[in-house]
Amino acid sequence: MRSTVAVTVLLASLLGAGTAGAAECAPDALGVSRTLVVDVNEHPRVGSWQYPESLPLNDHEVVLTFDDGPLPPYTDRVLDLLAAECVKATFFMVGRMVQAYPAAVRRVYDEGHTIANHSQTHPFTFHKMSVDQASREIEGGFSSLRTALGDPKAVAPFFRFPGLLRQTAVEQYLADHGDMAWSVDLAADDWTHINNREVARRAISRLEARGKGILLLHDIQARTALALPEILQELKARGYKIVHVVPTTPDRPKTVTEPELWAARHAPEPKVWPRTLAVGVESPEPVLAAPCSSWATRADADHLGDWSCSGSPIRNRASVQPIKTRRVRASKYRPLYPQ
To answer: Is 3.40.50.720 the CATH classification of the domain at 26-270?
Structure first.
C-alpha cells in the first residue's frame, strides 16, 4: 500500500512538471558540460560492452541514451524532466513508433536532442539475419525518421542494434554506409520487472563503479520516467557532467581528442539480453515487444494521464485491462550484472 501511494505521489509530481524548464534553465541546472562532435568514419563502433572503443569521455562524464521510443506519455515526461535540467540526450528511435507518433519525434528534435536509429520494427534477430534483411530494417528506420522530420540532415548517422544483437557483416554494412554502431557502457535494467527506485539505484551505482560512460535507458517505460528525477539529482549531487554527442557536418568539425581516450575499459558483453516479452518463433515478422507489455494496467492509466498503452485517449479508465499480444510468452530474466 505504501509503495502504491509513493508511486502515485511521484507520478503526480511528474505530471505537474510540465515544460517550465524548456524556456529557461535554473541556476543550479545540471545542463550540458560540452558537446562532443564525432567522425563516424574514424570511429565506426563505440561502447565497451561489445567494442574495443567507447566515446572519449573524461572521468565523471556521462552520455544519456534512450531506446525504443517515442511513446506518449512516457517520452513526453522524459523530455519535460530533461528540459527542466537543460540536459541533452540521444534518442534511438524505432521506425514503427516514429510513424505512429511523428509529433513526438519532432518535439525531441526541436528541443535539441540527437535523433538516432534503432531499426524499423525492433526485431531480436539481427545477429542471424542476412545482410539484405538487416539493411531493410536499418534503412527503413532511417527513412521513417527522415520522413517524420522532413530533413535528412536532422537524423544522426547513429545506429543501435535491438537487444545489442550484432553481427560482423551487418556492422560492416553500417560502416560502409557511414553509420556508427553504438553499444553501451552501462545499463539500468529498466526493461525488467524492477521498480523505479531500483532503476535509479542500478544506474548510479554502476556509473560510480565505472566512473563514466554511455548509459542505456528506455523512454517507453513508466519506471524510467519515474526514476529519471532521482538519476538526474544524483548525477548533479555527485559531480557528474553531461556530454551531448552529435556527428560531424561540413560546417561542424570533429572534436579534437586524445587517441587513448577512445580505448574502452573492458566490460564483458552480456551473454543474454533480458527482454520484457518474447514473441512466438513461428511469427514471420518480429514485433516490437515494448510499448504494451503485460503490466500495462489500469494503474498506468491513472498515474500517467489519459492515454492508453496504444497511445489513444482513454475514455473509460475502468475498462483498461492488461494488454495481450499474439503468441506471447514471458521470458525468464538473467541479470546483466551481479545483484
So the answer is: no
